[in-house]
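User: Before I run my own analysis I want an independent prediction to cross-check against. Here's the chain; please return only the structure tokens and, at the end, one sentence I can use as a sanity check.
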Amino acid sequence: MSPVLRDTTIIPTILNSLEPLEPNTYTIALSTGSDQFIGSPNGYKATYIPPAVLFDLFTGLLELISGECTYRIGTHRPPALEEFLKNSTKSKTYTSHLWIWFGASDSFVARSKTVWICSKVPPQLTSRLRQMSSYSCTKYNATKGVFKDGTLDDVQWHSNGSFYAKKGDSDHVIISPYLEKGETFAFIKKTEPGKEPPFIIHFEWEQRHSNLIRESGASKCSTLSASPLDRDLDRMAASNSFDENNATTTPKRYPQLENLDSRDFRFAISKTCRRPTNDLWDLDLNKGEKLLVLRDMGRGWHIAMKKKEDQDPKAAYARFTDDLDKMLIPGQLQEFPTMKSYVHDCTKVECKPQKQDESLLGICVHDLLALLEGSGRFSYEWLKEGRNLWHPDRFAQFCKPEEAERLKPMAEEMFVMYGILMDECARR
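Assistant: Structure tokens:
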């Protein structure tokens, strides 16, 4: 390593030329050794900057003040990440939303908008990411999926099973993945601009540093046998505030709906008419109306929703395949098939954000299932064969060259959903 890259004068001089981060925004990167890079609203500190980045900063080549983003991909990167990077970096829309988190032993989590991939992370984290997704699949030592609501804003993990994943604008957490015990971490809470944020910082084998003052009514920390990370998680949780005026919750006696399992849905027919009460959970029913039963709550109570009469699935699938035959001419495709014109039946709450995202296909995996079942040949092998069409690189052969990079992410979404349906078939 060149001595100039650790020069105590050059690095601060270069970093002082950068614009500070927005309030409550932090960038912290730790290495396997003692190197670190810290960015905050108060400025930047670093013990080391990669040579190529240092050169661009020093010469002024890197100067983005228009809100656009740029990136550089190093030579050493996990093999499982290659295809995801290839597809994401060719689309300007997806590149601007690309985030990658690296850990020890080639572990990583990456996302671009709602699409994500991870590999070699703790199984607890993989399970949590799948719970946050409308669908996911595992293949070739990597798990892919699509978040059902929003995207992932931060994720940290350690091989001991500790992890932190969050959506939305909240507190900042960093956990070093490289040290033995996973006890090097930092928690920085949100605060008003101009005020010092509450924080807890700990380096292994050193004393913790914190300006967090426990309130008298806060719950006690974990027992002395707990790790520093566990104890400080409790302290941070005890200090969190809750704004009742901005909170919206389901009535106490009713369950949340995010864990409904679509494979257990049943249909029912209303025997009588029913007019709703003042309870928002009551349905206005006509005799003979078709319902989709989501969950049996016991004692004669069920969670259900009205079911629209479906179009003929065979006719929808026939129209879909006829249109594909006309559209898929090598080098001629300019627009992706309008999938929601063939099927748009799913009304699950967790699928709504995905279906309303104009950059996506407008359908979810449940819609695709309904469409493909109209073929009358639905099976694992049939799905496997049909999925090949939607591989982004193969699909690009049908696109006009100037449209290929815009259409490939849509093909990848179809490819991923086919994979989810294949996994469902394999489990049956």
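Sanity check: The first helix runs from residue 10 to 16.
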